[in-house]
Structure formats: C-alpha cells, structure tokens
Amino acid sequence: MSTAPKPIALPVTAVTCLEDRAHVERTAVLDLEAGVQRLRLGPVSALAVDRTLHAELTAEHAATVLDVRIVRSRPPRGPLPSPDEDSALRHRVHTLEEEQLSLGRRRDRLHARLDLLGRLAADVLRDIGEGAGSGEAEAPRWARELDRVDGERDAYGEQLRAVEVRLAALAVEVASARRAMDLSEEEPAELVGHIELTVETAVAGPVGLRLSHLTPCALWRPAYRAVLDGDSLTLETDAMVWQRTGEDWSDVRLTLSTARSALATDAPRLVEDRLTLGDRSAAERRTVDVELREEEIGELGPAPVLGLPGVDDGGEARVLRSPAPVSVPADGRAHRVPLSAFTTAAGSEYACSPELSPLVTEVVRFDNLAGHALLAGPVDLVRGSGFSGRGTLDFTAPGASVELAFGSCDDHRVVRNAEESRDSAGITQRTVVTRTVQLHLSRFSAPGEQGERVVVLRERIPVSEVSAVEVRLRKDACSPAPDAVDAEGIVRWDVRLPPGGRRTVTLVYELSASAKVVGL
Q1: β-sheet bridge partners, residue 102
Q2: How far is CA 7 from CA 2, 30, 44, 251, in A?
Q3: Which H/E stretch holds residue 338?
Q4: Element at 349 (helix H, strand E)
Q5: Which terminal CB of the chain, N or C, has fewer other CB atoms within 10 Å?
C-alpha cells in the first residue's frame, strides 16, 4: 500500500445547510487497481467532524472501504523573495528603519551633549560660589558663561524634542508598513485537511466515491421580499447563507433544513404534580380580589420567538431546496439564495389602534401560495415608489392567510382622549366605573385628491372573568355605533373619510362591581 504524492481532487457537490452547521457531500470517480490501495484525497476543510465521516463506493464489481480518516497538517510558509525582487513596500520599510536607526543615534548624541552641558553649568555655579566666598566679583564673566550654557542647552533640547517626535511618527509608520507587508507578501500557515481512504477491489477499473461529513461555521436564515403592485402582491422567498468553513462551495446542490441535530432527543421526565384543596378564610369569603392585566390573544401555531434567534419552523423539521446550483464563497458574509416566488391577489385596509399607536397603517392580507411553509423572518417591503421599509413575517402554513404591514400613512392623524368617572349605587352598593374614549380622526389630502378611504379603528374594552364584575358596552352612548364587537373585547369601526375629512368616534362602556370586590 502506498500514498500518492499528489492528492486526488474531491470537490463539494451537495450541501445540506442546517441551523448552525452544514452536511457536506463530495463525489469523485476513482481509477483503482486490483487489490488494496491507500488513496489521498482533497484538500478538504480542516473543520470537518471526524466522527461524521462516511465513505461509500459504487461500482459494477465488488469494492470495499476498509478505512477512511481525515489527516490535518500545517504546511510551512513559502520562501521569502530574494533581495533583487524586493517590492516597493519592502523598500519603504527598509528606508524607514534606516532613518529610525540614524535618528536613534542622533538622539543618543544629543542626550550626551545635554548631559555634558549640565555638568558644565554645575561647574560654573560652583566657580561662582567659590569666587563670591573669596571676595572675587566677576559678575560680567559669570553672566556671559551662564547665558552661553543656557542658550546651548535650550538649542540642543529643542533638537532633542524634534528628534523624539520624528521617532514616534516613524514607529507608527514602520508598524503600519510591516502590517501591510505581512498581509500582502507573507502567506500564513493554514491548517489543511486531507482524506486518507483505504479501499479493496478485486477488479481494476473506475469506481464512484461518495463521501459526506458535518462541518461547523455554516448557517442560514430565511428572508423575504414583498412587492405590492395595486391589488397584487409578489412574495420572493430567499435564504441568507453564511459559511466560513475554509473552502468555497461552487455550483453545489443546496438544501436548507431546520433540523436541529445538536439537540438531545431524550423524552422529558414526568414529575408528580399534586393539587390540594383548602378552606377559604373569613376575609377571603367576604371579599373578591380582582386586578386588571394584559393578556395576548392566543392563536393556533407555534409560540412567538422574540428577536428570532433561530429558525422558527412550527415544531416540525422543514426542508427547502434551491432550484438551481449555487455558489457560496467562504468569506463569512451573507449571500442571498433565491428559493421560490409567487404572485397572488392581495386585499389591503388602513387600520389603526389608537391605544397602541396614533399611526394609520396599511395592512395587506394574502394567502400563502408558495407551496411550502413560510418560516419566520425579515421581509423587505417594496411599493410602487420603491423600498418602503422592513417588517417581520411570522410562521405561516401553506395556504394560510398572511398579514403584512406596509408602513404608516403620513396624511392621517388620530388623537385619543380618555375620561373616567366613578359612582356608587346607594341600595346595591355596587361601584360603577364609566369610561369614555374619544377618537379624533383627520385626513390631510393633497390638492386634487379624490375618493373616500375606509379606516378601520379598533379599541378594546375589558373582559371580565368573574361574575362579581360586569362589563357593559353602552351602544346608545357610542357615536357612531360600533360595526362589530368580538369575544375578546375588540370594538371595530369602519370609518369613511373623504379628502380633507374629519370624524370623531366615541366609545362608552361601564364596569360594574359588587361591594365585595376590591382592587378595581
């Protein structure tokens, strides 16, 4: 058995991209000789997971895989260029280093000169002290000598400061030039993997090889693009793919899966949950403690995922395939891969919930005709005027209805005013809370604009869960009467606004509680 010095190419032909890793498939045709052979194939990504390595041979005659393993090595760097072929960047580094060395020597000489002048100044001061002590008075000579020493010290000190400033600038320039030279000329040693395959065949001839393994540093997320054109909407489903596995994927069959192979599959443990009954105390029997709380309306489907950290697939593994071969370089950047697109009729309405936001938003509704589930992800919103913003698409089953908000309408304004009054009945001792909500809706239209616009206003009233508290909508006091009231307490009006029109909507409801209720 021998290993060929030149490895056999083993390109990537198919990739199944998971939520946080990728399953890579490679194929090649091997020209084998009869007997046992050890082959060297690659190079492959050094990040390949060894325990997931699997090789399979396909041939008309008997062929067996005896052993397959991945061998990693770090090849040495290439030889440095000769001095005659030095680049301009290398010459620049050499020039800066020579200037740095020359300035360093000059700095040392200036330090020596300043040290000598310091000793000379000390000698002059000692001579002045001795002369003054012995009665000698040579003030003009002493002044001349001190002025000369101080002048030379100032001149050389200024030169030293200039040299040190230039040396600091040179240090920055040399470091920057060296970094640029390291990035442009020197190739760092990289970890490279190769596949060592030991096979046995009885007859010489071509044999097909299929090798697969898992590799980290690859992931994908869904992304969408919705184009609204009048009464029709086009939804494009794309996949954003990132990979930094160390090798490019060129013209591969790409499959996208939401399977989470890293999660454990053990069944949850069953624990005992005991329920006990207890007698109420006298205080609990005398009063009913209630509170107002916010509750989201529950719907069928998966629980919402805040921030979309992963792929929301509704609890079931989904598989999407690219219709054409794709290429994804290993640069760690996001690459958009088209998956599907469909055009369907869409209905739109202008909706507003003043309690949550004073903006009037255009909401578009359409059916999912993509033929597959729409996973939760960001969606780019495009209208006739161009890109209008970015929203979020929730998980939607095939054929289900989809809602997309295409931004607010700047020509509408809604002002909300709420008042509350509290009264107590003398005989029944019931507390009655009356709340009045007024909604002022205005439309600011451009000159020449025609046609009415229907704005759907939604307000809510509390829903009681206990018999001691009653909620009653006073339709006789509402102006106009609501068009609909559902079981969750959502009150709806369809308000028609002409160009430049204004309307006021009034909602009145009562909360009636018995004397035993506290906390309202």
Answers
A1: none
A2: 12, 12, 11, 22
A3: strand 335-345
A4: strand 347-352
A5: N
Confidence of residue 307 (pLDDT cuts 50, 70, 90): very low
Tokens of 517: 């209720």
Q: Distance (Å, rounded) from C-alpha 254 to C-alpha 247?
A: 15
Backbone φ and ψ for 166, nearest 5 degrees, come out as -65, -35
Retrieve residue 258's tokens.
């939401």
Task: Report how far residue 246's alpha carbon sits from residue 248's, in angstroms, rounded to the nearest whole number.
Answer: 7
- Strands 335-345 and 326-328, by their bridges, are unpaired
pTM of the prediction? Answer: 0.68
Residues 6+ apart with CB under 8 A from 459: 353, 354, 355, 437, 439, 490, 491, 507
Q: How confident is the model at residue 518 (pLDDT cuts 50, 70, 90)?
A: confident
Q: Give the Cα-Cα-Cα angle 286, 290, 294 (nearest 5 degrees).
A: 170
pLDDT band at 40 (very low <50, low <70, confident <90, very high): very high
CATH architecture, range 88-184? Orthogonal Bundle (1.10)
Report helix angle 139-184 to 88-134, nearest 10. 160
- Domain residue ranges in the chain: 12-76+189-215, 88-184, 218-260+308-408, 412-518
Q: Which one is predicted more confidently, 500 or 4?
A: 500
